[in-house]
Amino acid sequence: MGKLLVLALVGILAALLGERLVAFRHRIAASRELKVKRLPNCHLIKGIETGAEDIDILPNGLAFISTGLKYHGLQSFAPDKSGKILLMDLNEENPRPIELRISRGFDLASFNPHGISLYIDKDDTIYLFVVNHPQIKTTVELFKFVEDDNSLMHLKTIKHELLESVNDIVAVGPDSFYATNDNYFIEETLRTLETFLGLTWTNVVYYSPKEVKEMAGGFYSVNGINISPDGKYIYVADLMHHSIHVFKKHANLTLSPLKVLQLDTLIDNISVDPYTGDIWLGCHPNGMKLISYDPENPPGSEVLRIQDILSEKPTVTQVYVDDGSLIQGSSSAAVYNGHLLIGTVFHRALHCSLDSSSGKGQSNVS
Ligand SMILES: *[C@@H]1O[C@H](CO)[C@@H](O)[C@H](O)[C@H]1NC(C)=O
Ligand SMILES: *[C@@H]1O[C@H](CO)[C@@H](O)[C@H](O)[C@H]1NC(C)=O
């Protein structure tokens, strides 16, 4: 394989050049100081103890949460337990997560959910797309949400050679989506080398039963992906490049690069407020602590909000920062009507009420 040879050569060169190490330390944000910035009305969500890697909220306030991710060297507090999808109704007075039952025939034991995305069809059918890593492979599972009995009916398992290391997806139809591949390699050592050398071999792939195609490439490590409320723009987070890439989505589904917004943090998941179009980001202010977990010196959490991303001067607000004493390794932040949910890769989840100063366009704070 051509790329393997390139990798070997680059590896030898890199061994000679300590510069790579400096660059790596920068990419992984090894040394940023954290100034804690908490919100007044937050509490840890009961029943979430093994991560809430991804959160997606329906326009009616039903929040879907993936929990129990086990992923390539990242910490897990329940390595033997399979993952779950939780549901939380944010319209309730004291919302609590319940586990969604999954229809028979689906292999629950190996369920290892990662990024998720909801899609509401014209007939109001709700589809849930879940990136799954049974063993260390990647599949995308398509479910139909049955609200009457809070269950997920498994419709199909999608596998494809262009979808081998998927992190996150955003659905654009009842059986089509864009997905991010966060690494080129699957194998652990090669992945580590890929990250260390700073290769930019990860991409965004479009999938439909008729066509599967790379739509953008050349990223260090693409992670969260999402779409603007009008469906015209796709936002992609490059974790190791500390940036958000904005693409124009054309009618023929190709993506053309529009702009790149540089931020001083590792961006994981992207969530879009369906009403304001604001972008909410779950970020890792210190990537090194995330990959070499030490409970005595845990990774922190950071939530950013971006307003008017398409304008010349988007407003970036640091909404929440924790040093890891309350919540570790935030990977997602999603809002609904004055509620903010902050999820983490392997730790707990936080439910906050936003006041008017931090929740533009969301005055009905409960
Ligand atoms: C993470 O990304 C997925 C796919 O774009 C999206 O469905 C989900 O809402 C995001 N979650 C958060 C909380 O950012
Ligand atoms: C898709 O549409 C865009 C914008 O109209 C155009 O520039 C591009 O060439 C098209 N690509 C393909 C593959 O049709």
Secondary structure: helix percent: 10-25%
Termini distance?
Answer: 57 Å
CATH class descriptor? Mainly Beta
Mean pLDDT: 87
Number of strands: 25
Backbone structural class? mainly beta
Outline type:
globular
Bound small molecules, by name, code or SMILES, are: 2-acetamido-2-deoxy-beta-D-glucopyranose
Strand adjacency order, main sheet: 6-10-9-8-7
Tally of distinct domains: 1
Order of helices and strands: HHEEEEEEEEEEEEHEEEEEEEEHEEEEE
Number of helices, where a helix is a run of at least 4 consecutive DSSP H or I residues: 4
Protein name: Paraoxonase
Organism: Phrynosoma platyrhinos
Family: Belongs to the paraoxonase family.
Enzyme class: hydrolase
Structure description:
With 366 residues, the chain is mainly β. The protein has one domain (32-353): Neuraminidase, CATH 2.120.10.30. The protein has helices at 2-16, 19-27, 188-197, 287-291; strands spanning 41-44, 54-57, 62-67, 84-89, 98-99, 101-102, 113-120, 126-132, 139-146, 151-158, 166-173, 176-181, 202-207, 212-219, 222-227, 233-238, 243-249, 255-262, 266-272, 279-284, 301-307, 315-322, 330-336, 339-344, 350-353. The strands form six sheets. Strands 6-10-9-8-7 form a five-stranded mixed β-sheet, with no helix packed on it. The protein has a four-stranded antiparallel β-sheet with strand order 1-25-24-23, with no helix packed on it. The longest helix has 15 residues, at 2-16. Mean pLDDT is 87; it is low at 357-366.
